[in-house]
Amino acid sequence: MSPFRSGFVAKDGFTYFGDAIMPRGVTDIAKAKQARILTGNIFDRYKSNMPIPRYPILFYKPATALGGPTDPIPVPPLAQEAAGLDYECELVAIIGKACLNVPEHRALDHVFGYAVGNDVSIWSLGKGFDGWALFGPGIVSSRLIKDPQTLKITTRVNGELVQESSTADMIFSLKKTIAFLSQGTSLLPGDVIFTGTPQGVGMGKSPPVWLKDGDIVQVELENVGTCTNRVEFDSPSPPRELKKRD
Questions:
Q1: Is residue 121 part of a domain?
Q2: How far apart are alpha carbons 244 and 158 in whole angstroms?
Q3: Is the pTM of this model over 0.85?
Q4: Residue 108's CATH number
Q5: DSSP β-ladder status, 89-95 and 192-194
Q6: What is the separation of C-alpha 72 from the centre of its chain, rounded to a whole number of angstroms?
Q7: Where is the signal peptide (predicted)?
Q8: pLDDT at 42
């Protein structure tokens, strides 16, 4: 297997996943001209041939990415130029008690509560734009949700059901994820953890279906509620200096 498995933007404008075919003697993936493309629904662990990873795959989102349950999904001009604006409904956990190197059987003791989130992504640019980590509609106490792995989760785009699954189908349980994240890294009260999305994302469709300006995205989690957010393409704006926080 090639060590370079990634997404590739092809000449047809679509993004495909597969193994890069490197020219002899070349190790720079940017110089790859061909790839062995994976077919099928690569986001469904039951229908794809991809091996389950040993550890959770992590993506970082800055605090400026946080958004609320009715906020718009702002899409800056740079992101408008690239294909791949996608929705991802996810179980969200908010840390309530600090932990470090916590074992799995104690991991959920450190959760303050749960929400539903939309982990907005654009496959060729990333996940960290302002307002692309929307969650809510509130935080339901972990005392009320005893088992976060039994909840139905869905996404609708303009009223059409596009994702429907259960948190029971997560490859890595929440307690396993928290235990992994806490190894050598302190998790602090207020940390927000998005946990991964089920099948049905736009990338997984054939051909892919991307979000566009004006689309209404609703993500819902059983016993938690719904976030409803509208995609809004930003107009170019002049640079501005942000005020320094004390």
A1: yes
A2: 39
A3: no
A4: 3.90.850.10
A5: antiparallel
A6: 17
A7: none
A8: 42
